């Protein structure tokens, strides 16, 4: 096989009356709004390696009505200007996109190219054409005279499942990022969650915290897992930076307090008898009385105060029937009418099984404590 050496042919482009004015930022001082966007030369090679097309690649900008393009041509020693609409750009690069390696760009402006007879080997690409286009290109997006880009916004919220955590336990923390009315690109959360300090450790950190996009009013949730290491308080925080398609930036932050305490109580629930056999009285079952006892043990070396008992007793019925509770421990937490050792009485008029659960919350000095079973 012989190696193909491309020969160069200048591809015509639409010329303007002169070089465009230099523009920096999102708009010019006079005339219609403009925005300078990144652009670079690309050496696009055909699938059979027998044709090479060198041109300017760049990403399109929403709402742009045309693009002013300038580049330095080292062969002719001059600045070449052009002005093309999005429709013209798509029409010009369509033949090359069909069978050339053009990736990562919305538009490709062909400048020159070369052909060779097959079979052809893949050679080393040179988008500067031996230094001819080494000074690069400038592309400026032109907008309608009254165009004003919408300001992007990004909202960050931290959701902590349980703001009071005991030492040794794990808790899930969600960081939610939401876009406003404008599409966001290049959203960056950094490390995602900050401020854990020495009281806790992040044991599970999600991937993909940066470089993602969000459509208007859409959200993305990241889940972190924290392991409580010692008693104390910290302020968790998260910050997101983002950019709109118009190049405007947005930032959002949120913070949430985290309190970690020692488990101070042991709570047990026991039924006596634990198994009940219901006897038939004709066609009906005789109800039996079961005493449910909730025992609370103080694990601290000091008294606890303001104890509040709350819980529930649940029965699984094997047959249809109603469950009648006396002094039920369910619903909102409230001071029980009797001591915690008195328990609750459950009547099960139909065959089935019952289970109990209880929790106690309170305080001791400046510390909070909890226990459950």
Structure notes:
This protein is mainly beta and 373 residues long. The protein is built from one helix and 26 strands. It has one helix at 86-99; strands at 9-10, 34-37, 39-45, 51-58, 66-73, 78-84, 107-115, 137-142, 154-160, 164-166, 170-179, 184-188, 200-204, 210-214, 219-228, 232-244, 249-261, 265-272, 280-281, 284-285, 289-298, 305-317, 324-326, 344-347, 352-364, 367-372. The strands form seven sheets. The protein has a five-stranded mixed beta sheet with strand order 10-17-16-12-14, with no helix packed on it. A four-stranded antiparallel beta sheet has the order 1-7-4-3, covered by helices on one side. A four-stranded antiparallel beta sheet has the order 2-8-5-6. It is elongated.
Radius of gyration: 36 Å
Question: Helix-strand pattern, N to C?
Answer: EEEEEEHEEEEEEEEEEEEEEEEEEEE
Percent strand = over 45%
Tell me the count of domains.
3
Dominant shape = elongated
Low-confidence stretches: 1-29, 316-373
Helix content: under 10%
Instruction: Quote the distance from N terminus to C terminus.
Output: 80 Å
Main sheet: which strands, in order across?
10-17-16-12-14
Describe the main β-sheet briefly: 5 strands, mixed
Nearest-integer average pLDDT: 75
DSSP strand tally: 26
Structural class: mainly beta
Please give the count of helices. Answer: 1
Produce a short descriptive summary.
With 373 residues, the chain is mainly beta.
